[in-house]
Amino acid sequence: MGKMERESSKRTHRTNLQKTILSVIFAVGGLSVALVAPKMTKILAKFEPDFLKSKFQKYSFNRSFARLKGAGLIFFEKTAKGNFVRLTPKGEAKLRRLEFLNYKIKKPKHWDGKWRILAFDIKEERKSVRNKVRHTLSQIGFVRLQDSVWVYPYDCEDLIMLLKADFKIGRDLIYIIADSIENDKNLRNAFSLSKMN
Question: 144: which strand partners?
Answer without folding.
Answer: 150
